[in-house]
Fold this protein.
Amino acid sequence: MSGTRLTKWVVAIPLAALALATVYPLVFTANVAMKTRREYVLDRFAPADSLHWANIVKAWTSVGMSRYFLNSVIVVACSVALLLLLGSMAGFALGRLRFRGSSWLFVGILAALFIPFQVIMVPLARIMAGTGLIDTYPGLVLVYVAQFLPFTIFLLASYYSTVPQEIIDAARIDGNSVYGVYRRIMLPLGAPALLSVGVLNALFCWNDVLISLLMMPSAEHRTLMVGVTSLRGQYSDDIPTFASGVLIAAVPVLVVYLFLQRQIADGVTAGSTKG
């Protein structure tokens, strides 16, 4: 028993330290956001004397975080919807159907996962500029879909490959076409995987800075994360306002992690087990 307790403490102490290191920056940011500029200059680490909500109101209204927030919601919603639609179709085809070249196609999709975005960003920007899609919602949505579609197809194909073949055969005997099997059988069965992959893609798109900064250069079309990075230069002498912007950007992600952490974990391991 003593050895078991010692093992538990050996595991618990590093995990507690990791949890503290993860939570402290958020607590520190929230504390700074609640301070006045004078309180921050006097002691940045001391607890705020009172909840000073004016900084968050200023960041939301005067600084333009509300507009950036709306831009992110529009782009993320459209990107995730397209990713799930295209990814579920391709995942079903590559996971359950067998056609000439399907194995090589799947290998090519896997290979795309190993190409860093920095390698293709310059030619991509030239192509998007030539088609007039720079600084537009459709342009950013298309780039997000192209960037995260291989990951989506890989996870959904892995999940669909675990569906018993007998279910598909029974649906075909009942007269369903391939599209009917996809719509009536695979989509309902794949709902847990679709939810998990949708949450992961939403977090990827929401937290992105590089792609959004490249595709949306104007201040009017900035996404939330790009807007937050721009605050650091504009409000270098008003750290509480900058911290308020960071807090506004972090709260949605924190809420998603708190309420959908199981789906996020399931998405990472989708298709890793049979049954």
